[in-house]
């Protein structure tokens, strides 16, 4: 008989089927005629080119090779009331959108209050996605 933890893990995996199988770089997506990514469930997610260009405008030259899209907004059981973003370029984009970016304090991981999620998702609806994490 499956344990409670096993059931929870399977359920979390099921609700994360909307995540991409691979996250391409912004540069790769900008070079595609029809920017899209294949999801874990086999379907495809299409990106708005205008949104990809907006992301490019937030970065310094060459950083488009480091930014993985979609940007994953992690909802964790460990940080209730917060969401997490990982990756130097990804954190930079999110902090520029939120108006909290500090050039002297570049981070590889950021933790933000969950009430800021709507602002991020409204600004980047096709280039961000949620991931549910159990820790």
Automatic annotation (TrEMBL):
InterPro entries: UPF0216. This is UPF0216 protein A3L02_08015. Pfam families: DUF61. It comes from the Archaea. Belongs to the UPF0216 family. It comes from Thermococcus celer Vu 13 = JCM 8558.
